[in-house]
Design a protein that fits this description.
The chain is an all-beta fold. It is 0% helix and 38% strand. It has no helices and six strands. The chain has a three-stranded antiparallel beta sheet with strand order 1-6-3, with no helix packed on it. Strands 2-5-4 form a three-stranded antiparallel beta sheet, with no helix packed on it. The termini are close together. The mean pLDDT is 88.
């Protein structure tokens, strides 16, 4: 799980700790708790880049369920 405080102004979250090529492995799925949208993500050398849906009621704090990576 990853917790974030505040909604990114550009609609993209970047989790550097989950960068491609590190010991964490490959991320398989990303879910935004409380939202049923299909979350698009890409694991790059910079980190796990997550494209967020419209904020709705999740503006202040939100949680991602991330599967496949070991942290």
């Amino acid at each position: 799980y990853a917790f974030m405080l505040g909604w990114p102004t550009d609609g993209t979250a970047l989790i550097k700790k989950l960068a491609k090529g590190t010991k964490v492995g490959e991320v398989k799925t990303v879910k935004l708790l409380g939202d049923e949208s299909n979350i698009q993500f890409e694991q790059t050398e910079s980190g796990l880049k997550i494209e967020l849906p419209q904020p709705g009621s999740l503006k202040d704090a939100f949680v991602f369920r991330i599967e496949g990576a070991i942290v």
